[in-house]
Amino acid sequence: MSLFDLSGQVAVITGSSRGIGRAIAIRMAEQGARVVISSRKQLPCDELAAEINAQHGVGRAIAVAANISSKEALQGLIDQTMAAFGRIDTLVCNAASNPYYGPLGGISDDQFRKILDNNIVANHWLVGMVAPQMRARKAGSIVIVSSIGGLRGSSILGAYCISKAADMQLARNLAVEFGPDNIRVNCIAPGLIRTDFARALWDNPELLAARNAETPLRRIGDPDEIAGAAVYLASPAGSFMTGQTLVIDGGVTI
Predict the structure, then answer these.
(1) Most CB atoms within 10 A, among 74, 86, 148, 251?
(2) Based on the number of CB atoms within 10 Å of its own CB, is 14 exposed (0-12), middle (13-18) or buried (19 or more)?
């Protein structure tokens, strides 16, 4: 059996109708997992689930729309997953928000709260919803998609960076709490990735050239280059890793 085999696993991936989450769902399904596609809108989720089922067989993917700002919607996501598959082996907290670009002095209270609620509190909610059945089975993997923004300051993404640093500490703390039950909790910290979410940071040719110049690999990343790390963390290959943050950034932070 491959160290990266996910056969028999059920994985819930938030924010998975596009970008990094989409790539993670596709690659986990390739490794044998049954995947739950979730984002705010049902139609894009349905489309990806249909694509995965067409390639790997009916029942390999289901689509459950859920807005991460709603605790009730997230509980519905978990309840529908349990009804469909009876278990959750891996939770990937990928969905996030960033409604503000600029210095912290200019951010409104509502914008700040939205970033913290969606990027930290929603992850806390989801973990609380999936952990009991993982603890009962003494097995599970939780992956939080953070950012290298959580490792350094920014003049335009301060609130987002604060939230992503908190995600890293959330993973460390949960790893301590859940470790005795064989549940692993880790973060992935991507650099700049070519997604719609980060379009404002790479769509301008001048900004992109400047970023490439300071990146040892001289380019930004693609969503698929993050997906492999999520597969690793969910698989037997990652069975002794917990409380850590995997930085995947083309070398920017070095």
Answers:
(1) 74
(2) buried
Q: Which residues contact 64 (CB under 8 A, 6 or more apart)?
A: 36, 37, 38, 45, 76, 77, 80, 81
Verify whether residue 160 is a known catalytic residue. yes
The radius of gyration of the chain's CA atoms, rounded to the nearest angstrom, is 17
3-state SS class at 93: strand
Cβ(16)–Cβ(9) under 8 Å?
no
**Position 203 pLDDT exceeds 80:** no
The band of 163, judged by pLDDT with boundaries at 50, 70 and 90, is very high
Alpha helices in 57-91 (DSSP H): 71-85
Reply yes or no on whether the pLDDT at 198 is more than 80. Answer: no
All domains of the chain in start order, with CATH: 10-194+222-248 (3.40.50.720)
pTM of the model: 0.96
Q: How many residues does the chain have?
A: 254
pLDDT (0 to 100) of residue 123 = 98
